[in-house]
Amino acid sequence: MSRGIIYLILNKQNGHKYVGNTTLAMNKEWVHHIDRSKRMSSEPLHKAFREYGTHNFMIKEIDECDETEFESKTNYWIEQYTPEYNPKVEIKVPEGLSASAIEIAKEAIEEYKPALKELAKGPKKPKPEYFVPWSDETRGNGKHFGLKIRGKNLETGVCTDYESARVAAEQVTGNPINNSNILLAARKGRIAYGHKWQLLEHKEKKKAVFGVNKKTEQIEVRYESMAAALRDFECTDKNGILKSLRNPGRYSWRGYLWFYAR
């Protein structure tokens, strides 16, 4: 079961507040809010970001809990802080009702408040048809995209073919991060780790990639190549997505875990 945090965002100019929850790191949640504000989100907090500037806001953790407790914990802290930027559910009681009827209506509102909050958020957007569940069958293993290479053991003379330099590094040295040394040796026809290496294929191919949403664990975006993903996210620095692709399931970029498609 994943754990998360309850956090408070404070407007340092007027003291207005926002209470939220997330399973992301605090800095990533902060960037997420800033990004939504830039995309002209109509939520009160994001409007305030545009009005006052994000430099006039601060974020801090106020609680930690299991994800199943998010709703109850968040509601508790909303009652404690009465935050001005959280969406409010307004229920108008018709005029002319007796005092007892109004009291009954108030009790009903309290009972159904969680459901009313969900209604206030509006209808959920339908998932695109290409969304598929993330599983061991769909996630890939990160080993299929390398160039095939051959290593000749100089002591035994035995030649072994490997699907990629990463696989070779893991089997020969016990550490997959030595793949760059083996790949360089294969490209230059050199010796590394007691083996003489050579490439078995030289074609550079576009490698399709897909992103898995960290929160929903659904495959939400697909691209014909890493470069196409970078263009769509308007980013020129490939280090973030490349780190995620080279370490499947360990690192995220722009809210997604990235994998090479099979």
Strand content: 15-25%
Instruction: Output mean pLDDT.
Output: 81
CATH architecture of the domain at 3-81: 3-Layer(aba) Sandwich
- Biggest sheet statistics: 5 strands, antiparallel
Structural class: alpha+beta
CATH level 3 topology of the domain at 3-81: GIY-YIG endonuclease
Could you explain how this protein is built, in words?
The chain has 262 residues and is an alpha+beta fold. Among the domains are: 3-81, GIY-YIG endonuclease, CATH 3.40.1440; 149-199, no CATH class; 209-260, no CATH class. Helices cover 35% and strands 23% of the residues. The strands form three sheets. The protein has a five-stranded antiparallel β-sheet. Strands 6-5-8-7 form a four-stranded antiparallel β-sheet. Strands 2-1-3 form a three-stranded antiparallel β-sheet, sandwiched between helices. 20% of the residues are buried.
Topology, element by element:
Layout: E1 3-11, E2 17-22, H1 26-38, H2 44-52, E3 57-66, H3 70-81, H4 99-111, H5 113-120, E4 132-133, H6 136-139, E5 149-153, E6 159-162, H7 165-172, H8 179-188, E7 191-192, E8 195-199, E9 209-213, E10 218-223, H9 226-232, H10 239-246, E11 252-253, E12 256-260
Antiparallel strand pairs: 1-2, 1-3, 4-10, 5-6, 5-8, 7-8, 9-10, 9-12, 11-12
Give a brief outline of the structure.
By secondary structure, the chain is of the alpha+beta class. It has helices at 26-38, 44-52, 70-81, 99-111, 113-120, 136-139, 165-172, 179-188, 226-232, 239-246; strands at residues 3-11, 17-22, 57-66, 132-133, 149-153, 159-162, 191-192, 195-199, 209-213, 218-223, 252-253, 256-260. Among the domains are: 3-81, GIY-YIG endonuclease, CATH 3.40.1440; 149-199, no CATH class; 209-260, no CATH class.
